[in-house]
Amino acid sequence: MKVGKLNWDDLKSIIDENRGYKREDVRIRSSIGEDCSVINFGDYECILSTDPITGAESGIGKLAVHINCNDIASSGVEPVGILVTILAPENTTLDQIKQVMKEIHEETQKLNVEILGGHTEITTAVNRIIVSCTAIGKGLKETAVATAGAKVGDDIVVTKQLGMEGTAIIVNDYYDTAREILSASEIEEAKNYVEELSVVKEGIISGKFGVNSMHDITEGGVLGALWEVAKASNVGFRVYKDKMPISEATNKLCNKYEIDVLRFISSGSMLITTDNGEALAKKLKTKGINAAIVGNITNDKGILIENQVEIEVEPPERDELFSLQEKINKFTR
């Protein structure tokens, strides 16, 4: 099997055939594109999500916090706690584990999130440190936003810049090759993307604004996120590549290594659908968050318009991140 997420059809069949017991107090259940489950607790509801870090080597503690808390934020609520599992190979030092936990500690402090517990183990089952977290959020009853809420006619809004996480991984894990492509200022900018990977702020703002759906843009990039929102909501979409917010540093790296930036891991950006994209974008910008309307939700298939050509969007496969090493090797021989 290929490295990366299971493809859409395989994952759907596994989920559909293995749902376990169905409880009445679960309001939103796991499904394709639905990163959070929501449990009713009377006047409040609990929002839960889990994810590992497998595609990066540097800053994995920081990434683990943000990708999980971002899932909670995509429900429009604030994350309150996180559970941490660390699996490390035999050659790991105590200082390396301490560094991962230091990163987790520092990032959770910034987000007002408590570390609730977890598990740490040295094992021959892995060949590098793997961090997997479960994040927990809390919201008033019936307030959590589902991925599956997109409606025909909605504007599609994307926050910040696409590909920030992938760009930061290239610059940090492949610095010597990146500096041959980017200027010193672009290198510094790309390194700083790791400080912009949280979408908690825009998630909470958008939740209070009243949007129809949200999905943080991670593996599979913006096209993967769009596909998942469309499938979960039983709708289509029409988006424009020239409206996608992409930095010059990200463009340079993706062009050099033949990476599809629209399918490149993009933590730090939120995909939002709403019936008033202009008002939401304006609201976000007043809070210091860049937001762009990149298209709209339709009742048909998913279409990307590039250079005035309509391209039907295929189901997401593995993220470009997982072929990064071979792409870089191709151009550095």
From TrEMBL:
What are the PurM-like N-terminal domain coordinates in residue numbering?
Answer: 33-137
Where does the PurM-like C-terminal domain lie? 151-302
Please report a single Pfam family linked to this protein.
AIRS_C
Q: Which CDD domains match?
A: PurM-like1
Highest taxon of source: Bacteria
Which InterPro entries did the record assign?
Answer: HypE (IPR011854), PurM-like_C_dom (IPR010918), PurM-like_C_sf (IPR036676), PurM-like_N (IPR016188), PurM-like_N_sf (IPR036921)
Which family does the record assign? Belongs to the HypE family.
According to UniProt, the name of this protein is Hydrogenase
Q: Provide the taxonomic classification.
A: Bacteria, Bacillati, Bacillota, Clostridia, Eubacteriales
